[in-house]
Write the structure tokens for this entry.
Amino acid sequence: MVLNCIIVDDDMMARKGLERLCDKSELLNTIGICENATQAMEMLSKEVIDLIFLDIEMPEITGIEFLENAVSLPQVIFTTSNKEYAYEAYNYQVTDFLKKPITYPRFKQAVEKAYAIHEKNNAYKANAQEVYVREDGRFVRIPFDNILYFENVGDYVRVKTIQGSHIIHGTLKGINGKLDNPRFLKVHRSFIVNLSKIKDIEENTLVIEKKVIPISRANKPVLMGKLNLL
């Protein structure tokens, strides 16, 4: 297991230096390099990211403002040349604080700390029986057993439940990476289904309640392999 990380820094040399440090670590997979917080926000909505290396002093949106405005965040490691921001790091409960210029031993220590936290969080999530979705400024708890399916609707995802629907900003790919639960399976580029809610399957479609859901050719063997067939 590795941590998917992104680098967010307005300085080109700082970005390149961090990229080299990330490439040296076997615990990291760098999936994005951003020049500003706006690019980082867009990437967070599309990718499954475990760790952000975040500069603080950036134009337009600072690292602090980025933290304040984000709906949800993975782990964050501050990277800055100003040690006076150490208090903010503590106040925002970021994983670590790296002062530039960053040495590899200190970088390695911060990454190992993030990795340990990630493993602990994953152990908790593996036993979770619910998800929380943001709605009207609050987080609503939805038990897994109430979820019928997730449907891609443009830049949003519909969470269809027994009681109704919730619309959340994000991608099906991002949700699929966060669910990590055997009861859910992506059967099509636009659908993740709760296997326990399937009523019947016919050729390249399945039915949950009255909804007919397509099954892609690539995903059908995976689906059939998960079912208890007689």
About this structure: The longest strand covers residues 28-34. The chain has seven helices and 15 strands. The CA atoms of residues 139 and 196 lie 25 Å apart.
